Amino acid sequence: MHTRDLVRFLAELAENNNRAWFVMNKPRYDILRAEFLDLVTGLIGRIGRFDPAVSGCDPKKALFRINRDMRFSKDKSPYKTQFSAAITASGLKKPSQGGGPAYYFHIDQAGRLLVAGGEYMPPADRLRAIRQEIVENPAGFAKTMKTPALRKRYGELRDEGKLARIPKGFEAHEALADVLKHKSYIVWTETDIGKQVPADLAAELAAAFKDAYPLVAWLRAVR
Length: 223
Known about the structure:
Number of helices: 9
Strand content: 5-15%
Distance between the termini: 38 Å
Order of helices and strands: HHHHEEEHHHHEH
Structural class: alpha+beta
Helix content: 40-55%
Number of domains: 1
Radius of gyration: 18 Å
Oligomer: single chain
Number of strands: 4
């Protein structure tokens, strides 16, 4: 896809985040959206080589809408300034819908590429199940997070939203407090592709997701 054109469009949208500008530039958006869909379609095929469970994911449903949900936000800007997608075995994007672990990426108006794998802010019952699995098999989870490729590319779990205290019901597991405090079980990395676009973006994304696969597979096995 024409990544530089996408970043330019998103940067202009960030400066003119209103319906009139968007309607005038809708033809540009439609072309870029179609290219992004092609990227995600090819990416699903590449991921399917090492994770067949996602092979049936509908690329159209994997894409997030550019329209923002403004109902509970003070920011009334109508559009997101990023193109994003979440590829899951369930075909559902959102954790609240039971989407489960995902391969997620987005490209934003500053030319930043974020690539992630895992579960971001799962609902309470799902979060409790993940924590319970860690309690029952801490060595298994530790082994997953020490997978060389995952650790080299992503490092540790992201701390966003992490609790200050051990969650209720898990007080007896103080030795595991640090990992049980997480509200998301996800890794991600960010790179600047605004000026230097990878020669094969789909291949780069697939390689990054392959490194995140051990965590995705571990989470998928949690019941």
